[in-house]
Predict the structure.
Amino acid sequence: MIPPQMFNIFYITHDQCTTESHWELFIGISIRVAESVIQNSSITIDKVIGNLLDEGALAPEISAENLNYARYFIFIILSYQTMLYSPALLAPASSVPSQLSIIEHTGCCMFTHAVHTLNIEECASETLSELLMGFGVLLPSKNLCLEDDEHMNNAFHEEVEVNVKQFNAHALHHLAGIKVKWTDSLSCHLEFDSTTKEVLLFRFPSFCQFSLAEYKGGKGRGVLHACGTTSRLRCQWATEAEINQFLAEVLLSYRLLFGQTKSSPGLFRSIDPFLRSKGQNRNLKDPLLSRICAERSCDDLLGGLRQNLELVEKDTYYLPRDFPILRYRFVVLQRQLSTSAPRTWVQLWRDKRNSAQWMTFWAVIAFGAFGSLMAFLQVLMQAVQMLQ
């Protein structure tokens, strides 16, 4: 909810305003913001505001107080157009904002978000990529390891393959005890929270599909692509081409986790990705999520996006090639899975990561149980003979 005082930046008569008129105003300004961002390289929030002033979309004379409201309003619009972060919405009675703030209701990522607040006057004159870099690595580049730990670095370079039969949502949940938590922030997809043992998954794959289809269809880049870096000095931040790769990897990761094994779709159906807390919109759902996670084949969904992208389902994925952007996050989850030992008989039965070892273990159990049963029956027969 946007507080009413934020609409003071517009040239409107508040006595005649309604919720519907505010919504129409928000949509209209959003379209103009998107056009400004897409058409102008290295644009800043203040330049976007300048363009809106030139077009007459804002009140001709903006006070210093309303200027900060305008900056925060653009920041909110950019969050919906990129889906990279969730802005901290201002309360109706809040003071004039002095900081741009993000808040993750569905969990905070240790490496993705370095900070949650930035000085509004300092970052409003920075390009969008520079501004977003201030919050952390929201758009990582290819084959980037975000860990200084030596063991993690070794694992990053050694564990380069992911086998679908061994690594999937069912195995993560039942063997490693990892729970799925859905997030509205694309930048948090596949981030693992070690304190709560939760993996965050983006709940709106249609955004990724639409952004890729628009770009590949020749309609040009969107606002998300405009946030890519063009500087060679920013080696940790994604370029425009890497953003396409990132979107493709997010779509393919749903198939790897849920769609390529028989047991994982059942896990997906047992959870409600769009179960929201009281007061939130419960009707906002993405039908693509159910299709891409629960159907046996998604060739009709992914086939049209495969041009110049690795969007092919495989039994074994090579991370540096198939998931160069999400590679680090897969390694973190794979290490968590490999270090988790079964603790119950049910987990032992489900743990088929090493099929040869699994068959050997249960064969020993079966033959041992059979041998014990035969020995017991032999003792029982001898006892009966002695009694006779």
